[in-house]
Specification:
By secondary structure, the chain is an alpha+beta fold. It has four helices and three strands. A hairpin with a 2-residue loop joins strand 2 and strand 3.
Length: 109
């Protein structure tokens, strides 16, 4: 087995949760998402983010609006929907339970 592949899969599994959490703080532009995710070492290539944002939009968990830019093409800003807030809350509960379970298991020698 390749440890790098396992690490990538672990990050991918948490990416949706992290993206929703970032968007839940307030309207966000895609490059800001990429910057935060990259700094947190959660994403390596931005091509991973765009399909995820489209899935979240299709599922009505996020919405976006276009904002004209003086320095280029219009920008797409994402915001979480009420349905997205409920979904995120459920994911947060699941995350807390997983962290507790993992710590319980890994704390034993």
């Amino acid at each position: 087995m390749n440890v790098a592949n396992t690490q990538i899969q672990m990050r991918k599994g948490l990416l949706e949760f992290c993206v929703l959490h970032i968007i839940s703080r307030g309207e966000v532009y895609t490059s800001d998402l990429i910057e935060e995710l990259t700094l947190a070492q959660m994403i390596v290539v931005e091509g991973t983010l765009y399909p995820l944002l489209n899935r979240l939009k299709t599922a009505s968990l996020v919405e976006y609006r276009w904002v004209e830019s003086e320095s280029g093409p219009p920008r797409k800003y994402y915001a979480i929907t009420d349905e997205g807030k409920t979904f995120l809350s459920t994911l947060a509960t699941t995350w807390d339970a997983l962290v507790n379970s993992t710590q319980l298991i890994t704390s034993k020698n």
